[in-house]
């Protein structure tokens, strides 16, 4: 057998003297787990924020209790909280402190992105170039869509890591120019690949022949020999005439 009972409640504000309270407030009575609307009433400060939904069935055809809740309309600056079971038809509001959006510092990340785009990647490995390009892309997305400073800082850290990770391509050995000796620098003013003119062979100057000094006694001996020879010849001729 169904039983009826008057259902009533009250609106509770953090401060009933607050100047931003509405003049009137609509409150709905909801039934069951699907929160089916049963009725709606209006209350105000003049009614001390009290209201009554009238007499309602408190059990169904099977005698099971019916669960009711009350819901107040939205009020700017306030939010409704869950009422305790013993006050389930009361509407309780709390001040809604809407957090101000965090002011993000994007300056350093923007500077880093601009700097990264100017890096000469000509002699960098493909792998390190792709890593940098991906980090730049994510950094630009963070600049555009980030909602927290943490996202900005993480994008900056990843970009710095990608810049530090750039690697040079291994250099290929350079074949020497024909006629050029590997590992030697060309002589200034000389074209690469040309052989230097051979240096003229420097022959040692012949040493002057050292003639032995004349001995004055040699001349005397020669004159003696000649004189003696003449005497012998004269003596022989004289003997022949005799």
UniProtKB/TrEMBL annotation:
<feature type="compositionally biased region" description="Basic and acidic residues">
    <location>
        <begin position="192"/>
        <end position="224"/>
    </location>
</feature>
<dbReference type="Pfam" id="PF05738">
    <property type="entry name" value="Cna_B"/>
</dbReference>
<protein>
    <submittedName>
        <fullName>Cna B-type domain-containing protein</fullName>
    </submittedName>
</protein>
<feature type="compositionally biased region" description="Basic and acidic residues">
    <location>
        <begin position="151"/>
        <end position="172"/>
    </location>
</feature>
<feature type="domain" description="CNA-B">
    <location>
        <begin position="10"/>
        <end position="82"/>
    </location>
</feature>
<dbReference type="InterPro" id="IPR008454">
    <property type="entry name" value="Collagen-bd_Cna-like_B-typ_dom"/>
</dbReference>
<feature type="region of interest" description="Disordered">
    <location>
        <begin position="142"/>
        <end position="242"/>
    </location>
</feature>
């Amino acid at each position: 057998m169904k039983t009826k009972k008057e259902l009533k409640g009250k609106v509770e504000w953090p401060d009933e003297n607050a100047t931003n309270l509405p003049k009137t407030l609509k409150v709905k009575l909801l039934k069951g787990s699907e929160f089916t609307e049963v009725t709606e009433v209006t209350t105000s400060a003049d009614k001390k924020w009290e209201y009554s939904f009238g007499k309602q069935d408190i059990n169904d055809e099977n005698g099971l209790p019916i669960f009711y809740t009350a819901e107040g309309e939205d009020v700017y600056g306030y939010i409704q909280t869950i009422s305790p079971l013993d006050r389930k038809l009361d509407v309780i509001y709390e001040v809604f402190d809407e957090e101000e959006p965090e002011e993000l510092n994007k300056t350093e990340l923007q500077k880093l992105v601009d700097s990264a785009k100017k890096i000469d990647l000509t002699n960098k490995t493909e792998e390190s170039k792709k890593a940098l390009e991906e980090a730049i892309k994510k950094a630009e997305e963070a600049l555009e869509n980030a909602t927290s400073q943490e996202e900005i800082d993480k994008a900056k850290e990843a970009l710095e890591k990608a810049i530090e990770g750039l690697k040079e391509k291994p250099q290929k050995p350079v074949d020497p120019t024909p006629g050029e000796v590997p590992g030697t620098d060309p002589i200034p003013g000389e074209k690469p690949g040309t052989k230097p003119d051979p240096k003229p062979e420097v022959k040692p100057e012949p040493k002057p022949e050292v003639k032995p000094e004349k001995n004055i006694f040699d001349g005397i001996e020669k004159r003696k020999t000649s004189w003696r020879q003449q005497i012998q010849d004269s003596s022989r001729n004289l003997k022949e005439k005799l």
